[in-house]
């Protein structure tokens, strides 16, 4: 089957069919859906070399992925995001290649590696947005999208961390809690800054004075930092009745510290996390948490990046897209009302 066969069967021009298969924004969603469904039905699969020559694209997307926990693709949050990105990109015929700072044994910049691989665009998932090599790539003419940060220099996708924090405090307040602590991510990440800001704004909204001794560091969203921070909170003369952890991994560490101190969650202290990783619903007690739609984040990132790639072929306006994804509170067993 060729693209000519697909055009004939759908009744659209070859140009429209090609644009639809490559998620070009100039084709309506209804038309894209019809053409893609027909392509799947007849088993259309374009020759990659011919397609690259015709479209002047490699149909390859680069992935820059670094995180501070050293977990790589086992990272409970970003692994799901990248899976959503991968599924969406593959739907439009793109393959992924992971980019690092080396070509062979020679150290290179990310942008050098991207050009060496001939990728059409790059998704950036990294904890250090201020890395000079990352900034160099963002400021290049190569289409890119960055996750979990805010920038006016490129396309960004992130969750509504401020509102998520407000949902947490609203929930705990409704249960009667007034002594609410926060284990904050203090390594400088955008998400961490937004969550502690949202925590303080929500306390103010509900007329709860900010107690600085109730704010402890949960650096890099790690289990160990959650455990250590919770031990410090438990050493206070007036311990909190509830704790808002900056991530689910931090919350799990905090729960372990509470148990080691001979206390119980939620009977003695309520705990709320953020992210809704897979583990959250399986631990005991099941964790109340703010759900970020990880798969949606990945899919939207792919759409934004592919749209920019396609616009570059036509007439790119130079405008960037900022997508703020909704969040929701998932109430499970780790929170309860106090007397």
TrEMBL record:
Domain of life, per UniProt, equals Bacteria
Gene Ontology terms, MF aspect: DNA-binding transcription factor activity; transcription cis-regulatory region binding
InterPro entries assigned: HTH_LacI, LacI/GalR-like_sensor, Lambda_DNA-bd_dom_sf, Peripla_BP_I
Query: What range(s) does the HTH lacI-type domain occupy?
Result: 1-55
Q: Which UniProt keywords apply?
A: DNA-binding, Repressor, Transcription, Transcription regulation
Q: Which PROSITE patterns match?
A: HTH_LACI_2
Q: Is Repressor there in the keyword field?
A: yes
Q: Which CDD domains match?
A: HTH_LacI, PBP1_LacI_sugar_binding-like
Can you say what this protein is called? LacI family transcriptional regulator
